[in-house]
């Protein structure tokens, strides 16, 4: 088993609104990580030590970027602005920006607003963009038609609401959406600050949901006629699959442990009864865990045998090498403090990643050019 990484404990008492990540972390000891070696046979573990090279800055001058989706064939990157409620196309070669339009109905406040976006599995034929956002009454998922032939600012159609009723709050709105290898739509939700919702399988808060592209509970879900896929989550903002179609999710802790979890249908991930590793067999233990000062994780992506996890309060990119659904070595940090808060990381194919910063979200310290998209080469 790899040794724990240990550093001096830093006792912080900063509240959710004073510089933490979107998990509402209120501090904790800094530096330690936890990861277990895999005992699954038949899979080659990646090297214990990896690498990150910043290839270039793709774009600058973005306002509260949150969701990111790559158009097929090098057609550009779609970026959602949390606070403005707009979607912008970024030319991935020149960095030029074109505002497609505003998603109507977005009501930004606190950690809420226009959050995750994802392209339809049939995007080549239907040109639909899915979006998760906070409205005046709830969090919901809509799909909008993107028509690049229309004038800039008018390229988004009216939202078609496919799913609503996800609890909203000033904090913990979740917001990540992604289509899985099975063609179903997965959504990470938060418990909106109401801890009890996470353990209530009839509530949509503090869950990972699995839906059809039309917004119905997906066939084969663990609870009959329910969109709930897993529960006991505090605030899920990262979803990614490995080549074996195994789902991983990042989760904000409160005072002690942030988590990377391997998701099993119908499983309970413990919140609020357990945070991080637990000896209680009712709850799933994380693949790896971090003190909240070191992570506050949002987006994740899979590349080169590892999950790559963006840290907000931690201001670093974490690499978690995997063998099966377990960590094969200690997590490794990159870009620590170099670009500030990191929000979203998306696979760009092979050993390339897109990474967005999040310094204009009210909790960062914006520098000239913030916020930005970076292109990374990882190994």
TrEMBL record:
<feature type="domain" description="Glucose/Sorbosone dehydrogenase">
    <location>
        <begin position="62"/>
        <end position="363"/>
    </location>
</feature>
<protein>
    <submittedName>
        <fullName>PQQ-dependent sugar dehydrogenase</fullName>
    </submittedName>
</protein>
<dbReference type="Pfam" id="PF07995">
    <property type="entry name" value="GSDH"/>
</dbReference>
<dbReference type="InterPro" id="IPR011041">
    <property type="entry name" value="Quinoprot_gluc/sorb_DH_b-prop"/>
</dbReference>
<feature type="compositionally biased region" description="Gly residues">
    <location>
        <begin position="18"/>
        <end position="31"/>
    </location>
</feature>
<dbReference type="InterPro" id="IPR011042">
    <property type="entry name" value="6-blade_b-propeller_TolB-like"/>
</dbReference>
<feature type="region of interest" description="Disordered">
    <location>
        <begin position="18"/>
        <end position="49"/>
    </location>
</feature>
<dbReference type="InterPro" id="IPR012938">
    <property type="entry name" value="Glc/Sorbosone_DH"/>
</dbReference>
């Amino acid at each position: 088993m790899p040794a724990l990484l240990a550093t001096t404990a830093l006792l912080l008492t900063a509240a959710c609104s004073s510089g933490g990540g979107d998990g509402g972390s209120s501090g904790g000891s800094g530096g330690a990580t936890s990861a277990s070696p895999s005992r699954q046979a038949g899979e080659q573990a990646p090297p214990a030590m990896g690498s990150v090279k910043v290839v270039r800055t793709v774009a600058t001058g973005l306002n509260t970027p949150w969701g990111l989706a790559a158009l097929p064939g090098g057609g550009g990157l779609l970026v959602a602005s949390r606070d403005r409620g707009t979607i912008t196309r970024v030319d991935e070669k020149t960095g030029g920006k074109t505002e497609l339009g505003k998603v109507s109905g977005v009501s930004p406040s606190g950690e809420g607003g226009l959050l995750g976006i994802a392209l339809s599995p049939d995007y080549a034929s239907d040109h639909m963009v899915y979006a998760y956002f906070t409205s005046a009454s709830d969090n919901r998922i809509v799909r909008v038609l993107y028509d690049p032939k229309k004038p800039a600012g008018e390229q988004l159609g009216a939202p078609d609401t496919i799913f609503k009723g996800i609890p909203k709050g000033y904090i913990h709105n979740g917001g990540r959406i992604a289509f899985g290898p099975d063609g179903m739509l997965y959504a990470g939700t938060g418990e909106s600050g109401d801890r009890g919702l996470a353990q209530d399988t009839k509530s949509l808060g503090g869950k990972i949901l699995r839906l059809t592209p039309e917004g119905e509970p997906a066939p084969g879900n663990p609870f009959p006629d329910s969109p709930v896929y897993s529960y006991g989550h505090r605030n899920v903002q990262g979803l990614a699959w490995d080549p074996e179609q195994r789902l991983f999710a990042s989760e904000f802790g409160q005072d002690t442990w942030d988590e990377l979890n391997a998701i099993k249908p119908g499983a309970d991930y413990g919140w609020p009864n357990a945070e991080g590793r637990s000896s209680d067999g009712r709850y799933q233990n994380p693949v790896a865990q971090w003190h909240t000062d070191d992570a506050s994780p949002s987006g994740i992506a899979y590349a080169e045998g590892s999950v790559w996890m963006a840290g907000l309060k931690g201001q670093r990119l974490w690499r978690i090498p995997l063998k099966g659904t377990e960590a094969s070595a200690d997590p490794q940090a990159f870009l620590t403090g170099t670009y500030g808060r990191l929000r979203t990381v998306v696979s760009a194919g092979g050993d390339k990643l897109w990474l967005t910063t999040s310094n204009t979200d009210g909790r960062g310290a914006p520098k000239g050019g913030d916020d930005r998209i970076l292109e990374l080469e990882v190994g």
